[in-house]
Amino acid sequence: MDALRDAIxxxxxxxxxxxxxxxxxxxxxxxxxxRAAVGWIxxxxxxxxxxxxxxxxxxxxxxxxxxxxxxxxxVRRPRPRPRQAGRIVLGEHSLxxxxxxxxxxxxxxxxxxxxxxxxxxxxxxxxxxxAAIDAAQRSVALQTYIxxxxxxxxxxxxxxxxxxxxxxxxxxxxxxxxxRYSFPTVIPALRRQGVRAALFNRNTFPWRWTYANLRSxxxxxxxxxxxxFTGGLNIRAGHVLADDPPHPIVDVHFKIEGPVICxxxxxxxxxxxxxxxxxxxxxxxxPAIDAAGDMVxxxxxxxxxxxxxxxxxxxxxxxxSARRRVRIVTPYFxxxxxxxxxxxxxxxxxxxxxxxxxxxxxxxxxxWASTAVLPQIITDGCRVWETPGPFDHSKIFxxxxxxxxxxxxxxxxxxxxxxFEFNIECYSETLAAQMHALIDRxxxxxxxxxxxRLESRSLPTRLRDGFARLFIPYI
Length: 475
Description:
Layout: H1 2-30, H2 34-46, H3 50-59, H4 69-72, H5 82-90, H6 95-105, E1 111-120, H7 121-134, E2 139-144, H8 151-165, E3 169-175, H9 186-192, E4 196-200, E5 220-223, E6 227-231, E7 249-250, E8 252-257, H10 261-276, E9 295-302, H11 310-321, E10 325-329, H12 337-348, E11 352-358, H13 364-378, E12 383-387, E13 391-392, E14 396-399, E15 403-407, H14 413-418, E16 421-427, H15 429-444, E17 447-448, H16 451-455, H17 459-469
Parallel strand pairs: 2-3, 3-4, 7-13, 10-11, 11-12
Antiparallel strand pairs: 1-8, 1-9, 2-5, 5-6, 6-8, 9-16, 10-14, 12-17, 14-15, 15-16
Helix pairs in contact: 1-2, 1-3, 2-3, 5-6, 6-11, 7-8, 8-9, 13-17
Protein backbone atom coordinates (compact mmCIF):
# COMPACT_ATOMS: atom_id res chain seq x y z
CA MET A 1 0.00 0.00 0.00
CA ASP A 2 2.84 2.38 0.90
CA ALA A 3 4.51 1.63 -2.43
CA LEU A 4 1.31 2.46 -4.29
CA ARG A 5 0.90 5.70 -2.35
CA ASP A 6 4.50 6.65 -3.13
CA ALA A 7 3.90 5.91 -6.81
CA ILE A 8 0.80 8.12 -7.11
CA UNK A 9 2.72 11.39 -7.76
CA UNK A 10 4.67 9.73 -10.54
CA UNK A 11 1.52 8.22 -12.06
CA UNK A 12 -0.21 11.61 -11.97
CA UNK A 13 2.80 13.28 -13.56
CA UNK A 14 2.85 10.74 -16.39
CA UNK A 15 -0.93 11.10 -16.83
CA UNK A 16 -0.58 14.89 -16.97
CA UNK A 17 2.12 14.62 -19.63
CA UNK A 18 0.04 12.20 -21.70
CA UNK A 19 -3.08 14.39 -21.46
CA UNK A 20 -1.13 17.52 -22.33
CA UNK A 21 0.57 15.86 -25.30
CA UNK A 22 -2.72 14.50 -26.65
CA UNK A 23 -4.56 17.80 -26.18
CA UNK A 24 -1.68 19.80 -27.67
CA UNK A 25 -1.43 17.48 -30.65
CA UNK A 26 -5.17 17.72 -31.25
CA UNK A 27 -5.01 21.54 -31.15
CA UNK A 28 -2.01 21.56 -33.47
CA UNK A 29 -3.69 19.32 -36.03
CA UNK A 30 -7.24 20.69 -35.89
CA UNK A 31 -7.10 24.42 -35.14
CA UNK A 32 -7.02 26.25 -38.46
CA UNK A 33 -6.30 29.62 -36.88
CA UNK A 34 -2.68 29.85 -35.73
CA ARG A 35 -3.55 32.17 -32.86
CA ALA A 36 -6.18 29.76 -31.56
CA ALA A 37 -3.72 26.87 -31.75
CA VAL A 38 -0.99 28.84 -29.98
CA GLY A 39 -3.44 30.10 -27.37
CA TRP A 40 -4.76 26.64 -26.50
CA ILE A 41 -1.30 25.08 -26.44
CA UNK A 42 -0.22 27.84 -24.06
CA UNK A 43 -3.17 27.13 -21.77
CA UNK A 44 -2.44 23.39 -21.88
CA UNK A 45 1.22 23.88 -20.97
CA UNK A 46 0.56 26.50 -18.30
CA UNK A 47 -2.14 24.47 -16.54
CA UNK A 48 -1.26 20.78 -16.35
CA UNK A 49 -4.38 18.63 -16.16
CA UNK A 50 -6.66 21.67 -15.96
CA UNK A 51 -5.52 23.08 -19.33
CA UNK A 52 -6.10 19.78 -21.11
CA UNK A 53 -9.50 19.37 -19.48
CA UNK A 54 -10.49 22.91 -20.47
CA UNK A 55 -9.45 22.18 -24.04
CA UNK A 56 -11.42 18.92 -24.22
CA UNK A 57 -14.51 20.67 -22.81
CA UNK A 58 -14.35 24.06 -24.56
CA UNK A 59 -11.87 23.84 -27.40
CA UNK A 60 -13.22 21.01 -29.52
CA UNK A 61 -16.06 21.39 -31.98
CA UNK A 62 -18.30 18.39 -31.37
CA UNK A 63 -21.03 19.69 -33.65
CA UNK A 64 -20.25 17.94 -36.92
CA UNK A 65 -23.36 18.38 -39.05
CA UNK A 66 -22.87 17.20 -42.56
CA UNK A 67 -24.93 18.52 -45.45
CA UNK A 68 -27.07 15.55 -46.37
CA UNK A 69 -27.85 14.71 -49.97
CA UNK A 70 -31.47 14.27 -48.90
CA UNK A 71 -31.87 18.02 -48.37
CA UNK A 72 -29.34 19.32 -50.88
CA UNK A 73 -31.26 17.49 -53.61
CA UNK A 74 -34.29 19.66 -52.91
CA VAL A 75 -32.47 22.78 -54.04
CA ARG A 76 -30.57 21.46 -57.01
CA ARG A 77 -31.64 23.52 -60.00
CA PRO A 78 -29.99 24.19 -63.35
CA ARG A 79 -27.26 26.55 -62.22
CA PRO A 80 -27.00 29.74 -64.31
CA ARG A 81 -23.60 30.98 -65.33
CA PRO A 82 -22.74 33.60 -62.69
CA ARG A 83 -21.98 36.37 -65.16
CA GLN A 84 -25.27 35.75 -66.91
CA ALA A 85 -27.08 35.95 -63.58
CA GLY A 86 -25.36 39.24 -62.84
CA ARG A 87 -26.35 40.72 -66.21
CA ILE A 88 -29.94 39.58 -65.76
CA VAL A 89 -30.17 41.52 -62.52
CA LEU A 90 -27.96 44.53 -63.07
CA GLY A 91 -27.05 44.82 -66.70
CA GLU A 92 -23.28 45.09 -67.05
CA HIS A 93 -22.73 45.74 -63.34
CA SER A 94 -19.53 44.33 -61.86
CA LEU A 95 -21.54 42.54 -59.18
CA UNK A 96 -21.56 39.63 -61.62
CA UNK A 97 -18.02 38.99 -60.35
CA UNK A 98 -19.31 38.75 -56.79
CA UNK A 99 -22.03 36.36 -57.92
CA UNK A 100 -19.36 34.16 -59.48
CA UNK A 101 -17.29 34.12 -56.27
CA UNK A 102 -20.25 33.09 -54.15
CA UNK A 103 -21.35 30.54 -56.71
CA UNK A 104 -18.05 28.75 -56.09
CA UNK A 105 -17.97 29.24 -52.31
CA UNK A 106 -21.51 28.54 -51.16
CA UNK A 107 -23.70 25.45 -51.16
CA UNK A 108 -26.64 26.83 -53.15
CA UNK A 109 -27.08 28.36 -56.60
CA UNK A 110 -28.53 31.81 -57.11
CA UNK A 111 -32.20 31.58 -57.96
CA UNK A 112 -34.63 34.15 -59.35
CA UNK A 113 -38.28 34.92 -58.82
CA UNK A 114 -38.07 36.19 -55.25
CA UNK A 115 -39.48 39.13 -53.30
CA UNK A 116 -37.92 40.55 -50.12
CA UNK A 117 -39.79 43.00 -47.88
CA UNK A 118 -38.11 44.85 -45.02
CA UNK A 119 -39.93 44.92 -41.66
CA UNK A 120 -38.54 47.35 -39.11
CA UNK A 121 -38.53 46.23 -35.48
CA UNK A 122 -40.89 43.83 -33.82
CA UNK A 123 -43.66 46.37 -34.32
CA UNK A 124 -43.86 45.42 -38.00
CA UNK A 125 -42.23 41.97 -38.03
CA UNK A 126 -44.03 40.16 -35.22
CA UNK A 127 -47.61 40.78 -36.45
CA UNK A 128 -46.61 39.65 -39.94
CA UNK A 129 -44.94 36.50 -38.57
CA UNK A 130 -47.89 35.62 -36.34
CA ALA A 131 -50.33 36.26 -39.20
CA ALA A 132 -48.34 33.85 -41.37
CA ILE A 133 -48.42 31.20 -38.62
CA ASP A 134 -52.17 31.68 -38.23
CA ALA A 135 -52.60 31.18 -41.98
CA ALA A 136 -50.49 27.99 -42.04
CA GLN A 137 -52.17 24.95 -43.52
CA ARG A 138 -49.42 22.32 -43.65
CA SER A 139 -46.19 23.22 -41.84
CA VAL A 140 -44.41 25.77 -39.66
CA ALA A 141 -40.64 25.70 -39.08
CA LEU A 142 -39.30 28.25 -36.56
CA GLN A 143 -35.68 28.57 -35.50
CA THR A 144 -34.31 31.32 -33.26
CA TYR A 145 -31.50 32.09 -30.87
CA ILE A 146 -33.56 33.79 -28.13
CA UNK A 147 -37.22 32.98 -27.47
CA UNK A 148 -38.22 34.86 -24.33
CA UNK A 149 -41.33 34.33 -22.29
CA UNK A 150 -43.64 37.30 -21.68
CA UNK A 151 -46.29 39.01 -23.76
CA UNK A 152 -44.47 38.72 -27.10
CA UNK A 153 -43.23 35.19 -26.53
CA UNK A 154 -46.64 34.05 -25.31
CA UNK A 155 -48.29 35.44 -28.46
CA UNK A 156 -45.97 33.28 -30.56
CA UNK A 157 -46.57 30.27 -28.30
CA UNK A 158 -50.33 30.68 -28.65
CA UNK A 159 -50.13 31.07 -32.44
CA UNK A 160 -47.91 27.99 -32.77
CA UNK A 161 -50.27 26.08 -30.49
CA UNK A 162 -53.28 27.07 -32.59
CA UNK A 163 -51.49 25.85 -35.70
CA UNK A 164 -50.63 22.51 -34.09
CA UNK A 165 -54.23 22.12 -32.86
CA UNK A 166 -55.62 22.39 -36.39
CA UNK A 167 -53.27 19.69 -37.66
CA UNK A 168 -50.35 21.74 -38.97
CA UNK A 169 -46.91 20.12 -38.62
CA UNK A 170 -45.06 22.54 -36.31
CA UNK A 171 -41.38 22.35 -35.39
CA UNK A 172 -39.57 24.88 -33.17
CA UNK A 173 -35.81 24.86 -32.60
CA UNK A 174 -34.29 27.19 -30.00
CA UNK A 175 -30.63 27.46 -29.14
CA UNK A 176 -29.89 25.89 -25.75
CA UNK A 177 -28.07 28.99 -24.48
CA UNK A 178 -30.46 31.52 -26.01
CA UNK A 179 -33.43 29.72 -24.44
CA ARG A 180 -32.05 30.52 -20.98
CA TYR A 181 -32.46 34.27 -21.37
CA SER A 182 -35.79 33.69 -19.63
CA PHE A 183 -36.77 31.22 -16.93
CA PRO A 184 -38.49 28.89 -17.21
CA THR A 185 -37.53 28.34 -20.81
CA VAL A 186 -40.06 28.39 -23.61
CA ILE A 187 -39.76 24.67 -24.38
CA PRO A 188 -42.20 23.30 -21.74
CA ALA A 189 -44.80 25.92 -22.68
CA LEU A 190 -44.55 24.98 -26.36
CA ARG A 191 -44.84 21.28 -25.61
CA ARG A 192 -47.93 21.88 -23.50
CA GLN A 193 -49.47 23.44 -26.61
CA GLY A 194 -48.75 20.30 -28.61
CA VAL A 195 -45.79 21.84 -30.45
CA ARG A 196 -42.71 19.72 -31.17
CA ALA A 197 -39.86 21.81 -29.78
CA ALA A 198 -36.18 21.11 -29.16
CA LEU A 199 -32.99 22.76 -27.94
CA PHE A 200 -30.03 23.05 -30.32
CA ASN A 201 -26.69 21.82 -28.93
CA ARG A 202 -27.35 21.58 -25.23
CA ASN A 203 -24.64 23.46 -23.38
CA THR A 204 -22.21 21.92 -20.90
CA PHE A 205 -22.88 24.71 -18.42
CA PRO A 206 -26.20 24.82 -16.56
CA TRP A 207 -26.46 28.61 -16.80
CA ARG A 208 -26.67 31.18 -19.56
CA TRP A 209 -23.15 31.77 -20.90
CA THR A 210 -22.96 34.72 -23.28
CA TYR A 211 -19.65 33.67 -24.81
CA ALA A 212 -20.42 29.97 -25.29
CA ASN A 213 -19.39 28.66 -28.69
CA LEU A 214 -21.17 26.64 -31.37
CA ARG A 215 -24.51 28.35 -30.90
CA SER A 216 -27.32 28.40 -33.42
CA UNK A 217 -27.68 32.13 -34.04
CA UNK A 218 -30.05 31.62 -36.98
CA UNK A 219 -33.46 33.29 -37.18
CA UNK A 220 -35.66 31.39 -39.62
CA UNK A 221 -39.42 31.09 -39.94
CA UNK A 222 -40.85 29.17 -42.90
CA UNK A 223 -44.61 28.64 -43.27
CA UNK A 224 -46.03 26.02 -45.66
CA UNK A 225 -42.74 26.13 -47.53
CA UNK A 226 -43.96 29.27 -49.33
CA UNK A 227 -43.33 32.27 -47.09
CA UNK A 228 -40.38 32.93 -44.81
CA PHE A 229 -38.86 35.45 -42.43
CA THR A 230 -35.24 36.00 -41.54
CA GLY A 231 -32.96 38.75 -40.28
CA GLY A 232 -31.73 39.87 -36.89
CA LEU A 233 -34.84 39.70 -34.71
CA ASN A 234 -35.01 37.31 -31.80
CA ILE A 235 -38.37 36.80 -30.10
CA ARG A 236 -38.35 39.16 -27.13
CA ALA A 237 -40.28 42.14 -25.81
CA GLY A 238 -37.49 44.67 -26.29
CA HIS A 239 -38.00 44.66 -30.06
CA VAL A 240 -41.52 46.17 -29.83
CA LEU A 241 -40.74 49.87 -29.45
CA ALA A 242 -44.41 50.87 -29.22
CA ASP A 243 -44.56 49.11 -25.84
CA ASP A 244 -41.81 51.40 -24.48
CA PRO A 245 -39.78 48.47 -23.10
CA PRO A 246 -37.10 49.11 -20.44
CA HIS A 247 -34.38 47.88 -22.81
CA PRO A 248 -35.50 48.76 -26.37
CA ILE A 249 -33.72 47.15 -29.32
CA VAL A 250 -33.85 48.47 -32.89
CA ASP A 251 -33.62 45.84 -35.61
CA VAL A 252 -34.83 44.92 -39.09
CA HIS A 253 -36.32 41.64 -40.26
CA PHE A 254 -37.28 40.53 -43.76
CA LYS A 255 -40.24 38.72 -45.28
CA ILE A 256 -39.09 36.36 -48.02
CA GLU A 257 -41.24 34.97 -50.83
CA GLY A 258 -40.21 32.86 -53.80
CA PRO A 259 -38.01 29.84 -54.57
CA VAL A 260 -35.19 30.86 -52.21
CA ILE A 261 -37.56 29.77 -49.41
CA CYS A 262 -36.48 26.21 -50.20
CA UNK A 263 -32.92 27.06 -49.21
CA UNK A 264 -34.17 28.51 -45.92
CA UNK A 265 -36.08 25.30 -45.28
CA UNK A 266 -32.98 23.20 -45.97
CA UNK A 267 -31.07 25.18 -43.34
CA UNK A 268 -33.79 24.50 -40.78
CA UNK A 269 -34.27 20.85 -41.75
CA UNK A 270 -30.57 20.06 -41.40
CA UNK A 271 -30.42 21.62 -37.92
CA UNK A 272 -33.63 19.85 -36.89
CA UNK A 273 -32.30 16.51 -38.14
CA UNK A 274 -29.03 17.05 -36.27
CA UNK A 275 -30.89 17.84 -33.05
CA UNK A 276 -33.75 15.34 -33.13
CA UNK A 277 -32.75 12.80 -35.82
CA UNK A 278 -36.11 13.47 -37.52
CA UNK A 279 -35.93 14.00 -41.28
CA UNK A 280 -38.42 16.57 -42.56
CA UNK A 281 -39.45 15.46 -46.04
CA UNK A 282 -42.45 15.71 -48.27
CA UNK A 283 -44.53 18.38 -49.92
CA UNK A 284 -45.63 19.93 -46.63
CA UNK A 285 -42.03 20.98 -46.06
CA UNK A 286 -40.68 21.23 -49.62
CA PRO A 287 -43.48 22.11 -52.05
CA ALA A 288 -43.04 23.45 -55.56
CA ILE A 289 -42.64 27.22 -55.25
CA ASP A 290 -43.76 29.70 -57.89
CA ALA A 291 -42.04 32.98 -58.61
CA ALA A 292 -43.16 35.84 -56.36
CA GLY A 293 -41.01 38.69 -57.71
CA ASP A 294 -38.02 39.53 -59.86
CA MET A 295 -35.22 39.37 -57.30
CA VAL A 296 -32.27 36.97 -57.61
CA UNK A 297 -31.24 35.58 -54.21
CA UNK A 298 -29.16 32.87 -52.60
CA UNK A 299 -29.16 31.44 -49.09
CA UNK A 300 -25.79 31.21 -47.36
CA UNK A 301 -25.50 28.57 -44.64
CA UNK A 302 -22.49 29.17 -42.41
CA UNK A 303 -21.18 27.28 -39.39
CA UNK A 304 -18.09 25.72 -37.78
CA UNK A 305 -18.45 22.45 -39.67
CA UNK A 306 -18.79 21.65 -43.37
CA UNK A 307 -20.01 25.22 -43.98
CA UNK A 308 -17.06 26.97 -42.30
CA UNK A 309 -15.96 30.34 -43.72
CA UNK A 310 -18.72 30.71 -46.31
CA UNK A 311 -19.87 34.05 -44.87
CA UNK A 312 -16.29 35.18 -44.36
CA UNK A 313 -15.58 34.65 -48.05
CA UNK A 314 -18.85 36.35 -48.95
CA UNK A 315 -17.79 39.44 -46.98
CA UNK A 316 -14.32 39.46 -48.53
CA UNK A 317 -15.78 38.95 -52.00
CA UNK A 318 -18.20 41.83 -51.47
CA UNK A 319 -15.45 44.20 -50.36
CA UNK A 320 -13.24 43.19 -53.28
CA SER A 321 -16.06 43.56 -55.85
CA ALA A 322 -17.30 46.97 -54.71
CA ARG A 323 -16.71 49.80 -57.16
CA ARG A 324 -18.33 52.83 -55.53
CA ARG A 325 -19.49 52.26 -51.97
CA VAL A 326 -19.97 49.75 -49.18
CA ARG A 327 -22.28 50.41 -46.24
CA ILE A 328 -22.39 48.14 -43.22
CA VAL A 329 -24.70 48.20 -40.21
CA THR A 330 -23.77 45.79 -37.43
CA PRO A 331 -24.15 45.73 -33.64
CA TYR A 332 -20.93 43.81 -32.96
CA PHE A 333 -17.92 44.90 -35.00
CA UNK A 334 -14.80 42.93 -34.08
CA UNK A 335 -12.77 42.63 -37.27
CA UNK A 336 -9.66 40.49 -37.21
CA UNK A 337 -6.58 41.44 -39.18
CA UNK A 338 -7.68 40.01 -42.51
CA UNK A 339 -11.02 41.85 -42.42
CA UNK A 340 -9.32 45.10 -41.39
CA UNK A 341 -6.99 44.70 -44.37
CA UNK A 342 -9.90 44.02 -46.76
CA UNK A 343 -11.70 47.16 -45.59
CA UNK A 344 -8.57 49.29 -45.92
CA UNK A 345 -7.83 47.94 -49.41
CA UNK A 346 -11.37 48.78 -50.52
CA UNK A 347 -10.93 52.35 -49.24
CA UNK A 348 -7.53 52.66 -50.94
CA UNK A 349 -9.16 51.59 -54.22
CA UNK A 350 -11.43 54.61 -53.93
CA UNK A 351 -14.50 52.81 -52.55
CA UNK A 352 -16.53 54.82 -50.05
CA UNK A 353 -16.88 52.61 -46.98
CA UNK A 354 -19.24 53.50 -44.14
CA UNK A 355 -19.82 51.44 -41.01
CA UNK A 356 -22.71 52.17 -38.65
CA UNK A 357 -22.38 50.97 -35.04
CA UNK A 358 -24.39 51.55 -31.86
CA UNK A 359 -22.94 54.18 -29.54
CA UNK A 360 -23.89 52.10 -26.50
CA UNK A 361 -23.53 48.33 -26.69
CA UNK A 362 -25.26 45.65 -24.64
CA UNK A 363 -21.95 43.77 -24.52
CA UNK A 364 -19.49 46.11 -22.82
CA UNK A 365 -16.40 44.00 -23.56
CA UNK A 366 -17.34 44.01 -27.25
CA UNK A 367 -17.70 47.81 -27.15
CA TRP A 368 -14.25 48.26 -25.63
CA ALA A 369 -12.56 45.88 -28.09
CA SER A 370 -14.37 47.39 -31.07
CA THR A 371 -13.33 50.92 -30.11
CA ALA A 372 -9.69 49.83 -29.94
CA VAL A 373 -9.86 48.60 -33.56
CA LEU A 374 -11.45 51.73 -35.05
CA PRO A 375 -8.22 53.74 -35.52
CA GLN A 376 -6.96 51.05 -37.90
CA ILE A 377 -9.90 51.38 -40.29
CA ILE A 378 -10.53 55.13 -40.21
CA THR A 379 -6.90 56.02 -40.90
CA ASP A 380 -7.37 55.60 -44.69
CA GLY A 381 -10.75 57.28 -44.91
CA CYS A 382 -13.32 54.70 -43.83
CA ARG A 383 -16.13 56.55 -42.06
CA VAL A 384 -17.54 55.08 -38.87
CA TRP A 385 -20.80 56.36 -37.40
CA GLU A 386 -22.22 55.71 -33.95
CA THR A 387 -25.98 55.85 -33.49
CA PRO A 388 -27.59 56.93 -30.21
CA GLY A 389 -30.01 54.67 -28.36
CA PRO A 390 -32.01 52.54 -28.56
CA PHE A 391 -29.41 49.81 -29.06
CA ASP A 392 -29.27 49.00 -32.79
CA HIS A 393 -29.12 45.26 -33.43
CA SER A 394 -29.56 45.56 -37.23
CA LYS A 395 -27.36 43.61 -39.65
CA ILE A 396 -27.21 45.07 -43.16
CA PHE A 397 -24.43 44.94 -45.77
CA UNK A 398 -24.91 46.88 -49.03
CA UNK A 399 -22.49 46.98 -51.97
CA UNK A 400 -22.84 49.72 -54.58
CA UNK A 401 -26.48 50.01 -55.66
CA UNK A 402 -27.43 46.41 -56.27
CA UNK A 403 -26.31 43.86 -53.66
CA UNK A 404 -27.63 43.39 -50.13
CA UNK A 405 -26.65 40.80 -47.53
CA UNK A 406 -29.29 40.18 -44.85
CA UNK A 407 -29.59 37.65 -42.08
CA UNK A 408 -28.32 36.74 -38.64
CA UNK A 409 -24.54 37.19 -38.83
CA UNK A 410 -22.54 39.96 -37.17
CA UNK A 411 -19.07 41.05 -38.25
CA UNK A 412 -17.21 39.32 -35.45
CA UNK A 413 -15.30 36.04 -35.08
CA UNK A 414 -18.20 34.46 -33.21
CA UNK A 415 -20.53 34.83 -36.20
CA UNK A 416 -17.91 34.21 -38.88
CA UNK A 417 -16.24 31.21 -37.23
CA UNK A 418 -17.97 29.88 -34.12
CA UNK A 419 -21.75 30.16 -34.54
CA PHE A 420 -24.24 28.69 -36.98
CA GLU A 421 -25.66 31.51 -39.11
CA PHE A 422 -28.01 31.95 -42.05
CA ASN A 423 -27.92 34.90 -44.45
CA ILE A 424 -29.38 35.68 -47.86
CA GLU A 425 -27.61 37.62 -50.58
CA CYS A 426 -29.98 39.66 -52.73
CA TYR A 427 -29.21 41.14 -56.16
CA SER A 428 -31.72 43.97 -56.34
CA GLU A 429 -31.46 47.66 -57.06
CA THR A 430 -34.84 48.19 -55.39
CA LEU A 431 -33.85 46.53 -52.10
CA ALA A 432 -30.45 48.24 -52.17
CA ALA A 433 -32.16 51.64 -52.54
CA GLN A 434 -34.44 50.84 -49.59
CA MET A 435 -31.48 49.83 -47.43
CA HIS A 436 -29.52 52.95 -48.42
CA ALA A 437 -32.52 55.05 -47.36
CA LEU A 438 -32.70 53.17 -44.05
CA ILE A 439 -28.99 53.71 -43.45
CA ASP A 440 -29.32 57.39 -44.35
CA ARG A 441 -31.93 57.72 -41.59
CA UNK A 442 -29.61 56.09 -39.11
CA UNK A 443 -26.67 58.31 -40.07
CA UNK A 444 -28.80 61.45 -39.82
CA UNK A 445 -28.87 61.01 -36.03
CA UNK A 446 -25.40 59.49 -35.70
CA UNK A 447 -22.03 60.88 -34.63
CA UNK A 448 -18.95 60.52 -36.82
CA UNK A 449 -16.04 58.81 -35.08
CA UNK A 450 -12.85 60.81 -35.60
CA UNK A 451 -9.16 60.30 -34.84
CA UNK A 452 -9.27 63.30 -32.55
CA ARG A 453 -12.06 61.81 -30.50
CA LEU A 454 -10.33 58.45 -30.21
CA GLU A 455 -7.01 60.02 -29.25
CA SER A 456 -8.67 62.21 -26.64
CA ARG A 457 -9.60 59.20 -24.54
CA SER A 458 -7.67 58.94 -21.29
CA LEU A 459 -4.69 56.63 -21.10
CA PRO A 460 -6.45 54.20 -18.71
CA THR A 461 -9.40 54.03 -21.11
CA ARG A 462 -7.17 53.32 -24.10
CA LEU A 463 -5.29 50.66 -22.14
CA ARG A 464 -8.58 49.07 -21.13
CA ASP A 465 -9.83 49.00 -24.72
CA GLY A 466 -6.50 47.74 -26.01
CA PHE A 467 -6.52 44.91 -23.48
CA ALA A 468 -10.06 43.96 -24.51
CA ARG A 469 -8.91 43.89 -28.14
CA LEU A 470 -6.59 40.98 -27.33
CA PHE A 471 -9.68 38.82 -26.79
CA ILE A 472 -11.32 39.54 -30.17
CA PRO A 473 -10.85 35.93 -31.37
CA TYR A 474 -12.74 34.69 -28.31
CA ILE A 475 -15.51 37.20 -27.45
